[in-house]
Amino acid sequence: MAERKWTDWQYTRDELKQTPSVASGWTVEREEMDRAKACTLVYAAARKLQLPQITSASACVYVHRFFMRHSLKEYHHYVSIQPCLTIAQTTYLYFVCRMLRRRVCFSRAKPKNRCVNSTYLSR
User: Fold this and answer.
1) Residue range 72-122, pLDDT digits in tens
2) Which of 2, 14, 68, 97 is the most buried (most CB within 10 A)?
3) How sure is the predictor about 60, in pLDDT bands with cuts at 50, 70 and 90?
4) What torsion, rounded to 10 degrees, do the Cα atoms 109, 115, 118, 123 define?
5) CA quadruple 77, 83, 84, 89: dihedral sign
6) Angle of the 28-48 helix axis to the 81-106 helix axis, nearest 10
């Protein structure tokens, strides 16, 4: 696989068949099966933890992105899902907090320079 930028995440069909796992000797079918197992485990863990669907879907995207750069021979597919779920949940919480902050700031009758009310801070 040719050297690519880390920000480049669109692949051709030929590139999808030349992943690091395939280069290390795995078949395309075996790699697809292990990726599917990883995503199944992501969805099961997210369901048990009562995480939103957007978090589990994002975690699956992160799993697929990870294995476009690293071989399944080096990293077991079950080990890679925990960091992906953590990153997806952190990203989701960041955007939720950002949306709430915007909503609180824009819902005030008299907009101020800061979102935090000074009377709240003096308590």
Assistant:
1) 888 888 888 888 888 888 888 777 777 777 666 655 545 555 555 555 555
2) 68
3) very high
4) 110
5) positive
6) 50
